[in-house]
Amino acid sequence: MNPHAWTLADLDAVPRNGVTVMSTFACGGGSSMGYKRAGCEVVAANDIDPEMAWHYKRNVNPRHYFLCPIRDLLAADLPDELFRLDILDGSPPCSTFSMAGSREKAWGKDKHFREGQAKQVLSDLFFDYLDLVGRLRPKVAVAENVKGMISGNAKGYVKLVMARFRELGYRPQLFLLNAADCGVPQSRERVFFCAIRKDISAPPLKLAPAQRWVSAKQATLDVQSLTASEQQDAFVVSDIYKKYWKNTVPGKVSTNGAGKSGIFYGVRLSATSPSRSLSASGVEKFMHWSECRQLTYREWKRLGSFPDDYHAKTDKIGKYMIGMSVPPKMAEAVARAVCEQWLNAPTSNLQPASEETSARSDLKGAG
Predict the structure, then answer these.
(1) Strand, coil or helix: what is 142?
(2) CA dist list (Å): 350 to 3, 90, 332
(3) CA atoms lying within 13 Å on the CB side of residue 313
(4) At residue 175, what are phi and psi to the nearest 5 degrees?
(5) What is the pLDDT of residues 40-97, one digit of tens each?
(6) CA dist., res. 89 & res. 218, Å (int)
(7) Region at 251 (left for phi over 0; alpha for psi -120 to 50; beta for the rest)
(8) Which side of the chain, N or C, has fewer Cβ within a 10 Å radius?
(9) C-alpha distances in angstroms, 48 versus 132, 294, 332?
(10) Are 129 and 120 contacting, i.e. CB atoms less than 8 angstroms apart?
(11) Cβ pair 363, 215 in contact under 8 A
C-alpha cells in the first residue's frame, strides 16, 4: 500500500487526546482533518458558503455547524462547550494579500468571494475572527494565511493583527511554513499565527517541521492507471496547453514561446519533486509530468494530502476544495506542536510510520 494514502475511516482509529477545536472559514475541511489526524476532536465549524458547508458536513461531520458570516457568531446563542475550547482555528479568505492578486487595490472593498455568498470586506475578516477569539476565549488561537501577508505593505496589517492578539490577552507568534516540510507532496508556503492565552504558562512555540520531501510521483504511484472516465476527462486539454506542454521543463510554468511565463499557460509538474502549489482557480492548468493531460481528482487528493475517499459532488469541485483548503498534513504539523508544547496533550500517528524505500532526502531544491 502506498504510505501516502489514507482514508476518512482511518481517523476513527486515532486515539483522542481531549483537545477540542472549532474551525472557522472551514472550507472543505482540510484543517479540521489535520487536527483529527493529530488526535483532536473538532466539535464545531463555520463557513459562509453553502457549497463548502455541504462538503464539510459530508466528509467531516461535526457536532455543530454554523452556515453564516463569522460576524454573526459574535452575537449568536452558542453552545456552552464553545466557551471552553482548547483551539479556535481559522483561515480568513486571503486573496487580497496574495502576491498574485490585486492586493492593496482590493483592501477595504466589498467583494463577492463566491456565488451565493454575501458581500464581504475580505481584509476585515481576519479581525472578525479575532473578535470571535475575544468572545470565546480559547486557550489557543491558530490562524492561517498566504505568504503575501508578510510582504510589502501587508506587513503593516500583520502588525495590527499581532497587536490585536495582545489586546485580547494572548501571546502571538508568527511562522512561515512550507507544506512540503510537513509531508505534503506539494510546495505551498503559508503563514500561521499561533497565540496562547496569557494566563496559561507555556514556553514559546517551536514550529519547524522537517519531514522528508515527497515527490508527486511517489505520492500518486498507485493511481496512475486511469479509469475509463478519467481517461475521457484527463485528456481533454486545450490547444494552448498542448502547444506548450512538451516544451515546458517539468516543475516549471510554461511560457508563451517568447520567454514570458505565467500560470495562464499551464504548469507541468515534476515527477521527482513535490507539486507546485495547487490553486483553486484554473484547475485544468495543472498538467501531468510524462503525459500531456490534466491531473485526475485522485491525483489531486494525494498531492493535497487529502483522504482517498474524500467525497465531492464533482471532480472539478473536489479539486477546487483542495486548492482552497489547508492541506491536512500541514494542519496536522501545527496541531501536533500546539498540543504537545502548549496544551500538554499527547498526539498519536494516524498509522505506523512507514519508510518508503524509494524516498529521496535530496528532493529539496529539485525541479
Answers:
(1) strand
(2) 11, 23, 10
(3) 12
(4) -130, 145
(5) 999 999 999 999 999 999 999 999 999 999 999 999 999 999 999 999 999 998 655 5
(6) 31
(7) left
(8) N
(9) 15, 30, 24
(10) no
(11) yes
CA dihedral of 160, 161, 166, 172, whole degrees rounded to 10: -130
Give the cell for residue 353.
510510520
Contact 139, 85 (CB under 8 A): yes
d(CA 231, CA 288): 13
CA–CA separation, 94 and 103 (whole Å): 10
CA distance 197 to 236: 52
Alpha carbon distance 88, 177 (integer Å):
19
Q: What's the average pLDDT block by block, 10 residues per block, for the chain (367 residues)? A: 94 95 97 97 97 97 96 97 98 63 45 47 82 98 92 85 97 98 97 98 97 97 97 91 88 75 79 95 91 97 98 96 96 98 91 40 41
**Residues, the chain:** 367
Cell of 121: 470586506
Give the cell for residue 38: 493529530
Distance CA 220, CA 270 (A): 12
Distance in angstroms (rounded) separating the CA atoms of residues 23 and 174: 19
Task: List the beta bridge partners of residue 42.
Answer: 21
Phi, psi of 12 (to 5 degrees): -65, -25
pTM recorded for the entire structure: 0.89
Gap between the Cα atoms of 342 and 202, Å rounded: 6
Q: What 3-state DSSP class applies to 296? A: coil
Please give the Cα distance from 149 to 161 (Å, whole number).
11
Query: CB atoms < 10 A from the CB of 153, how many?
Result: 10
Alpha carbons 117 and 102: distance in angstroms, whole number? 20
Residues 59/124, Cβ–Cβ less than 8 Å = no
CA distance 197 to 277: 33
Q: Under the phi-then-psi rule, with left for phi > 0, alpha for psi from -120 to 50, and beta for the rest, what region is 110?
A: beta
